[in-house]
Model the fold of this input.
Amino acid sequence: MGTRDRTRPDESRKPGLITPGGYRDLENQVDKLWAESRVLADAVAVAAAEGDRSENAEYTYSKMKLGAVHRKLGFITRRLKALKVAPQPPADDGVVHFGCWVEIEDEEGEKQVFRIVGSDETDLERGHISSDSPVAIALLGRGLDDEVVIQRPRGELVATVVRILVREPAS
Done:
């Protein structure tokens, strides 16, 4: 079994949805990586000019870091080509759509707010969950005051949709 046989499969060309803001974020990340790539290329050139490369740690480190940046650039560029920007959800139609913010309340009265986004822009700290997650699957297509059953590893969670927003809620 070769080294490549053990790595994860390349899913960079897998189609998927992304919000317009998430797409812009990925484009900005590409711009930052290109700028970083130029700086690292200059560092490699300077380190290479110092002479013997076999014992030049700065050259080796800069080349490794440049390679990592180029791999990430390639992955994000392929993702941008494969992704489809989702249309803005309809304004306040009372149904949970991709890109909406949804507030749910569980049986104990605890409230949580989620935004349903593509897998490339998930961020749990901001409440952005993947449309492929069990929570999002349970919420998509549901309406205000609907009761949803969310399948979790530690058991089912029964919650009620208490608010659906197209725009980000005020903090």
In short: Helices lie at 3-6, 20-48, 57-82, 134-139.
